[in-house]
Give the backbone structure.
Amino acid sequence: MKNPSSPRLVIIDDHELAREGLRLALVQRGFEVVAVGATAAEAIELTQTTDPDVVLLDIRLRDGPDGLAAAAGIKALNQSVAVVMLSLHDDADYVRAALKAGAKGYILKDTALDELCAELKTVLSGGVAIPQALLAAVLTPKAAAPPEYHLVERLTDREREVLRLISEGKTNKAIARELVISPATVKAHVERCLAKLGAADRTQAAVMMVRWMEAEG
């Protein structure tokens, strides 16, 4: 049975020092960290097996699907758990991508611990945690096309379709099932998308796609 006075957390970060440091700090501040992990697959599995109140999830995970995919997977299986993204990116478009994936919060990694705890309590009480400096930009519709708009325009229809599904947090296997193509073909499309966009990884490419879709209206 859950202890209502001690919120249950799962922490997912692919940097061991970061997740262990955060675990210790949150335990000292009255939170119960029921599990930690490093991948999207672990995030989904641990959410199912430990029934946390909140999953603190790094938006960028190095091995396999990213935090956006993990968030979408978690919410597909358990609507009651709150997902809070941890990120280095002080960027409204990343916040929009996180919210689209189902996150209830977006917290920058340089946030002070006391402020982090306050934001977690906001989420636990049913609110949404977004950095104040980014809130206005997140809520304001973007009038102009983003700088990378023309890069997304250069993708083929199939590549944009794959990228749209990535922006929805879907894994290569899920995309393959939906488009009735092989995972190897999806992987090839993803690699071409990253190359054409000059994106470092799936997360950055997904954010670029979200910007493009917003500009398209």
